[in-house]
Each structure stands twice: as C-alpha cells, then as structure tokens.
Amino acid sequence: MKQLWGSGFSKALNKSTNDFNSSLRFDKRLYKYDITGSIAHAAMLSAQGILTKEENELIANALKQILSDIEDGNVNFDFDLEDIHTFVEKLLTERIGDTGKKLHTARSRNDQVALDVRMYVKDELENLLKQLVSLIKVLLSLAKEHTTTIMPGYTHLQRAQPITFAHHLGAYIEMFKRDYERITDTFKRVNILPLGAGALATGPHNINRYKTAELLGFDDICLNSLDAVSDRDFVIETLSDLSMIMMHTSRFCEEIILWASKEFQFVKIDDGYATGSSLMPQKKNPDIAELIRGKTGRVYGSLVSLLTTMKSLPLAYNKDMQEDKEPLFDAFDTVKMCLSILPEMLETITVNKDKMLKACSEGFLNATDLADYLVKKGLPFRDAHEASGKAVRYCIENDKTLDTMNLSEYKKINGLFEDDLYAAIDIKNSVKSRKVIGGPAKEAVEKVILINEEWIKQHG
C-alpha cells in the first residue's frame, strides 16, 4: 500500500509494521471532523487564489458526498491505510482525480490531526455540558422533595450532626456545577485553530488562518506553529476534567452503595438498577453504582497514560502522540455512559425517611447543639465543648442519651443548664436552627434551591 509519505522510500512497510503503525482502526471516528476541516481548508485556499473556484467546488462536493456515504454505511474502511487522513484523501482522489491531490496544499497531517482532535473534543464537551445539566436537574428535583427529610451528616464516616437529605444532595449539585464551569473554561483553550501550522513551521503559501478559524467556528488561532502541532495539553486538561467528574460520581455512588446496605437502609435501589446473585437468592446488589465507581479508575488511567506519554517529548510532533486518541475516546465514552445512567437510577430510588431520622437518635449528633446552648448562656465555647463532652461520656457510661439525661444530672456538670436545653438539643430543632445560607435548615436550603433553579435556566 502506497503511503502519503512513501516517495522517498525504496520499499514499502511490511504488513506487521504497517498494522502497528496504523491508527485508522480507532481514529476513523474522526471522519466527520477530518472532512469538515478539509472543506473549510479548501474554501480558504480558494479565497486566497491558491485553488480556483471550480476546484474548490469539485473538492467540497466530493467531500460532502464522501461524508454522506460514510454516515449511510456505504463506505468500507480500508485498514491497510495509515490513518483517517490518508483514507479520506484516497477516496477523494479516486473520485475526482488530480484535483483531489491539491487539497493538501499548505497543511500537514500534523496540523490536520490536531484540528480533528480539537473539533472532536469541542463537540464532546458540549454534549457533556448537557448531560451535567440533566444530572443537576434530577438532583435538584430530588432535593426539593426532601428539604425536611432529616438524616445524619458524617465526618470520618462517623455520625456527626443532623442535616437533611436535600442538604446532602446539594453538596453534589455544587460539585457538578463546578465540573460544568471547569469544562466551559477548558473549552476556551480547546477552541483555538491549529490548522496552517504545517508540519511544524507553516509554509510559503499566502493562506489566511483566521478565515479558516471563522469557517470552522474557532475563536482564535494558535500563534506558534510548533506549539500548534506538538501541544496536547488541551487533551490532558479535558481528561483531568473528566476525571474530576468521575471522582464526584464515584463518591456519590459509594454513598448510595452504603445507604442501600442492610447496615444503613437509608435508600432502596429500584430493581431495574440492581442485580442478584447466582448463588444467594436473597441478594440485591447495587451493581450499577459499583460499576460507575469502578469505571472511575479507567478514566484516571486515561489521564495518567497521556501525561506519561507527553512528559519527555521534544518539539515538535512525535509518533508517540498518536497514543492520545484511544484514551481520550475511551474516557469520553465512559463518562457519557455513566452520566446517562446515573440520573435514571436516582430518579427511581426510594428514600427511607424513618430510617434516616432514627439514625440521628444514636451517636450523640446533638452534642454540638448542647455546647452551643451553653455558649448562648454566656459560657466560652471551649468550656462549653468540655461540658458537652462530659455529658456524652456520662451517657455512654450510664447507657443514656443526651435526651434522656435528667436536669439534675446536667446540673452536676454545669449549673447553666435549664429545662430549655431539651428543646435546644431536639434533632428537628437542631436542623431548623441552622438557617445560615449554605446550612441544612429548610429555609436555607430552599434559598439555595432557588439560586440553583436560576442557574439551570441560564445553563439549561
């Protein structure tokens, strides 16, 4: 098979070397971007007088037909060819002859592949933004249903203070909003045109790179041709964003797995999003949540893979950089799949409000409220903290709770305790008292919900 670069070689690659060198098996998914970029390149060449109007029309029409034929399944990929660029150019020259050979004027596969990958990433990021908004909508809807559903808040996986389920969900809403913002920020650095850089040093032709950028919807052009063809930090940054999304989904799924266990029983996963055991008939396994948690490592692997590939490469292009595509493609596919099924699973879970509330009665979640009660009586917080700790220790030693200690027992610890302490340490009152914006009280959570509903309107 004749290669685009083969004119200076005395023999062709052997079959195994060609197979090892070829990327068409995986970069074929870039066909749309390769063809679209080529159409814009031809239009720019024509506008600059490098191609005639007739040649541009012939090339553009043929490329559009090739695109249509590929999408209709009427084209078979020839995997003996080196890459998607070679494949498209071969089809083009077969259909229109020598005019097709003029298309590659003033470009190299180095800047061509950089263009294709940037266009692909742009599309995928925009799709990802939509998926994040959909997930946030589901979380927001669930939060609105549970502004008074009291549950334990945890630190170190130990019961700490009472909050609401809505408040807990709200934490993930904020995380996914930041993921959204990270992607929109990354998009600005992706949306820069590399085409026109050539192999590494541009060329002598009077091209107009800004025209090409305008035709393809890029905000700007790469200002250094070496950087344009040897840079993959936009891919690495994208993979970092995807890893962050997966880290957040994994943490959430870990909690769902815990909450669905017999030990917690806070939620029940719908049968449509769980599996059973081939041996133990009683089992109901949270496999979907576990798979999302597991696939996080896969996306992390893609990030580390490309960081490692790029860490020692001299400028400009090196064949190592062909290894950017498979981890990028796999990471996007994985994240999209997870963000597709997670909202569906969340929409069908059953929340056990009674179990959540009951869990707040064990573990002294109102100990901080007891300390705050004394602070309001004028005691310094450190002294109040010590008094509350003594009360907790007394309860543990005497098999009591803070609610069942009588006033005389409290008085022995500190004389500031009065009958009104019981209202102060009531779990429901504890949550109600935390009205600071960002806190778990119903009115505080509802204010944040309104803010997030407005965010949805602006980004949805």
Description of the molecule:
The protein is mainly alpha-helical. The protein folds into three domains: 6-105, Fumarase C, Chain B, domain 1 (Orthogonal Bundle), CATH 1.10.275; 113-198 and 229-358, Fumarase C, Chain A, domain 2 (Up-down Bundle), CATH 1.20.200; 362-452, Ribonucleotide Reductase Protein R1, domain 1 (Orthogonal Bundle). Helix content is 62%, strand content 5%. The chain has 20 helices and six strands. It has helices at 15-21, 24-27, 31-47, 53-71, 84-96, 98-101, 109-145, 165-190, 209-216, 225-230, 233-259, 287-310, 325-348, 353-359, 367-376, 381-397, 407-413, 421-424, 427-433, 442-459, and strands at 150-155, 158-164, 192-193, 220-221, 267-268, 350-351.
Helix coverage percent of residues?
55-70%
Q: What do we call the CATH topology of the largest domain?
A: Fumarase C, Chain A, domain 2
For the report, how would you describe the main beta sheet?
2 strands, antiparallel
Strand content: under 5%
Terminal Cα span: 49 Å
Poorly predicted regions are none
Instruction: Using the CA coordinates, give the radius of gyration.
Output: 31 Å
User: Taking all residues together, what is the mean pLDDT?
Assistant: 95
Output the strand order for the largest sheet. Answer: 1-2
What is the top-level CATH class of the largest domain? Answer: Mainly Alpha
Element-by-element helix/strand order: HHHHHHHEEHEHEHHEHHEHHHHHHH
Q: So what's the overall shape? A: elongated
Total number of helices: 20
Instruction: Work out the number of β strands.
Output: 6
Total domain count: 3
